[in-house]
Amino acid sequence: MSLNGRVAIVTGSTSGIGLGIAQALAAEGASILLNGFGDAAEIEVLRSGLAAQHNVRVLHSAADMTKPDEITAMVEMARAEFGGVHILVNNAGIQHTALIAINLSAAFHAMQAAIPHMKQAGWGRIVNIASAHGLVASAQKSAYVAAKHGIVGLTKVAGLELANSGITANAICPGWVLTPLVEKQIKARAERAGRSEAEERVALLAEKQPMLEFSTPAQIGALAVFLCSDNAKTITGVPLSIDGGWTAA
Question: Looking at the annotation, which residues are catalytic?
Answer without folding.
Answer: 144
